[in-house]
Amino acid sequence: MFSLAGKIAVVTGAASGIGLAVAERFRAAGATVVGIDRTATEDGIVADVSDETVLAAAFDTVISRHGRLDIVVNNAGIQPLGVDFANLTPALLERTFAVNVNGVAFGIKHAARLMKSVGRIVNTGSFVGTIGVPQGTAYAASKAAVIHLTRCAAVELAPRGITVNCVCPGTVATPAVLDIPDNPEIAFAEARTPLGRLASPAEIAAAFHFLASEEASYITGAVLPVDGGITAGWERYDLVTPPNFQNGKWND
What we know:
This protein is an alpha/beta fold. The protein has seven helices and nine strands. The protein has helices spanning 17-28, 52-66, 90-114, 137-157, 175-178, 184-192, 201-212, and strands at 8-12, 32-37, 45-46, 71-74, 120-124, 163-169, 223-226, 245-246, 249-250. The strands form two sheets. Strands 3-2-1-4-5-6-7 form a seven-stranded parallel sheet, sandwiched between helices. The chain is globular, with a radius of gyration of 20 Å. The termini are far apart.
């Protein structure tokens, strides 16, 4: 089950974190994986996904090397959390959208251009793209855009047999999170997430694996939260029973 044997897959942002875990899992399932990243990776191509010309050339290189393209994971991104509206700048907003939104949009464009038929595209969203959060202006808005790009592409590409889905992780134990000294996000996520911990990259990669597989052939336009329940609701809501409620009845 969930075999990717013989498939040619591209994973952007494959040098670390979620992208690396996805690439490793795909290889274990039998796929040939080409990583696209600004850092060199195994069987990879060095490229900045925010530059469409460079990204298109990287996809063309995959075709010249392997002859076809079956799976694309648009995962590369930057994570400028902790910046509020007061400190938002044009440069930050533009760079965040260039990588997180343009990189996905053009990843979809060139994946669709090169996929012959029956392809799989899976994008990386985020739980903060589905809920409002303070100090997440640029990043959260960019991930909300990724979610809607997913839906638009799913509708447009369905006649060709290409499915497009989005995985929305919660807080994941990646270098982007762990390498920040005394990162308050970790304790906050552990306290607020109903499962009480951060996700491992491997747990997120499992969702990508399923959506890239033949078993997910009738799923498109889906936004899959893999967030430990943090968007399902609060795990604590400290309330006092109102005096109107007595003996199982509400007294007006």
